[in-house]
Design a protein that fits this description.
The protein has about 550 residues and is of the alpha/beta class. The protein is built from 23 helices and 18 strands. The radius of gyration is 29 Å and the shape is globular.
């Protein structure tokens, strides 16, 4: 057997799942020097760490190759999210199936009564999220007095999510002699403090490959105008046509908005955020696994721990808070030796900041232009030709139908109809305005030399932002999105740029629509650029600072 150094039950399970060799982290935790010791393990996402800690705790759980009868749990695995906990449970169930393991999962969003019944019936391994485990512990449903191994999976993320109090309460309820395995992608100070408190003589295992990020992930960055972010997402999806793609947003609202926009365009997309029930989340993930959906729009927390082997593209629609979050997000692709691409969509005014973040984290990135419609159509032609050139098996009925079509319509018409049918099933690419604002040399953006500025009586205090200003401007001026350049919002008004080519038609439309605009309370007028306007004394008043002590005698 290829894994003869492992317990027979686990070796058989690994062989049945096609594990010819162990990954680096799996080999490290099952080495003789790691046996029986507390472990601090840094392993990159997708390296097989669930199987790794399953192997690591075998020495404490198995007796004569089998799990003994257990009234109370022998092993506890704590994970930050429901999805990760469910995934861990699934992995441990097949790994310990031959050993007769009973695995119970306790996560938020599931029926707590059923979980308590399952715990009462006895379990060898309990997997759960911090909040739900603490709830069961306080209610007396979870007894940790017999625990031999405690595993903290993605401990850094649990602390980031504010679960320190729950983790400490749970670990304080475990026996002093238990073994503690701590898995964390990074080692910030809170993790170090946690390890010192709950571990003894811990062995440090580092398999992350340093600060180089994920070696199987190609990082790219696209600088676009803020008004073009959604268009860039559409074009990136169309350019790559990934089997599965994950799009990361910062808020539930952003997830909702982007998911709706993609679905409207014809993308097979599902959404995950904190507002979705567990049943909704399970349906979304199943749709991705069986191919009914190809795009997942999600927040960071919702997508934590999701393991979809077909993910080859990650798009950071809204920027992550730091380099660690970037790598956690990007780690949904490039897993287990597969190649993946992670693309950051960067508002042009934040390019320098993003560049500095990537350099400081030593993450190599390629800055690229946003895909243009012509780029996508060229890629579509390549994919179509590859698909048509691929050998196919046809039966006699299909061959007869093909012959009939050729005889009635001719080869040219059949080929044209086939191309049209395949092309019509794909969402149309979007026009991209460019990076927005000034170019790298400080001059006007390409295509907007000699442009004119206008102002509109809607600013931040009215809830205005470029996303809804752009369609309004296009409608009242009868111009296309490509004719509008930068949009700058101030407190009481907003400024926008009109290309020289579109200016005559824009002005003519304003005059024609002036009466209707006045009825709607919309006022548009020529202006200087926002910078010149403010320099000349326009714009909102400067904020007043706190008053200092008044000079002179007091007033009477």
């Amino acid at each position: 057997m290829p894994h003869d150094h492992l317990p027979a039950a686990l070796a058989q399970a690994l062989a049945a799942r096609g594990y010819d060799t162990l990954t680096e982290v799996q080999s490290a935790v099952s080495a003789p020097e790691a046996a029986g010791r507390d472990l601090i393990v840094s392993a990159r996402t997708g390296s097989g760490k669930t199987v790794a800690f399953g192997l690591a705790m075998a020495g404490e759980l198995l007796e004569d190759g089998k799990l003994p009868f257990a009234r109370f749990p022998l092993a506890l695995v704590i994970a930050p999210t429901r999805e990760l906990a469910l995934q861990v449970s699934t992995e441990l169930e097949w790994l310990y199936a031959e050993a007769g393991a009973r695995v119970v999962t306790c996560v938020g969003g599931m029926d707590p009564i059923k979980e308590r019944r399952a715990l009462h019936g006895g379990a060898h391994i309990v997997v759960g999220t911090p909040g739900r485990l603490r709830d069961h512990l306080e209610r007396g449903a979870l007894d940790l007095s017999s625990l031999k191994v405690a595993v903290l999976d993605e401990a850094d993320e649990m602390l980031d999510m504010g679960f320190r109090e729950e983790l400490e309460e749970i670990l304080d309820a475990t026996p002093d002699g238990r073994r503690t395995l701590l898995f964390s992608a990074t080692m910030p100070r809170p993790i170090v403090a946690l390890a010192r408190r709950y571990q003894k003589d811990a062995l440090r295992i580092e398999t992350t490959g340093g600060a180089q990020g994920h070696g199987d992930i190609a990082y790219q960055a696209v600088a676009v105008s803020p008004t073009d972010i959604e268009h860039a997402v559409v074009n990136l999806l169309r350019l790559h046509e990934a089997e599965t793609a994950i799009l990361f947003c910062a808020t539930r609202e952003a997830v909702r908005r982007l998911h709706g926009s993609l679905a409207e365009r014809g993308f097979e997309a599902v959404a995950l955020s904190g507002e979705h029930s567990q049943a909704d989340r399970n349906r979304a993930l199943q749709a991705l696994r069986d191919g009914r959906a190809r795009v997942l729009v999600a927040t960071d927390v919702a997508a934590r721990g999701i393991d979809l082997p077909t993910v080859t593209l990650v798009i950071h629609v809204e920027l992550p808070r730091d380099a660690e979050a970037l790598q956690h997000r990007s780690g949904r692709t490039g897993r287990a030796g597969r190649k993946g691409t992670a693309v950051l969509i960067v508002p042009s005014m934040r390019r320098r900041r993003v560049d500095m973040m990537l350099r400081s984290a030593r993450i190599p990135v390629e800055w690229i232009e946003a895909p243009r419609p012509e780029d996508i159509r060229a890629r579509d032609r390549e994919r179509l030709m590859d698909k048509l050139r691929a050998p196919v098996e046809v039966d006699e009925e299909e061959r007869a139908l093909a012959g009939q079509l050729l005889a009635e319509l001719g080869a040219d018409a059949v080929a044209a109809a086939l191309v049209k049918a395949l092309a019509s099933s794909l969402p149309a690419p979007e026009d991209i305005l460019g990076s927005g604002g000034k170019g790298e040399d400080g001059g006007p953006r390409q295509g907007f030399e000699g442009s004119s500025w206008f102002k509109i009586n809607a600013g931040r205090r009215h809830g205005a932002d470029p996303r809804w200003l752009l369609p309004l401007i296009c409608r009242i001026g009868h111009v296309g999105r490509a004719d509008i350049g930068a949009i700058r919002t101030a407190a009481a008004e907003s400024f926008f740029e009109v290309s020289a080519k579109a200016l005559p038609g824009f002005v003519k439309s304003l005059r024609r629509n002036s009466a209707a605009m006045a009825q709607d309370g919309i006022l548009v007028a020529p202006s200087t650029s926002p910078t010149e306007h403010i320099a000349a004394g326009g714009g909102p008043p400067k904020p007043r600072g706190p008053k200092g002590p008044r000079k002179g005698p007091p007033r009477r």
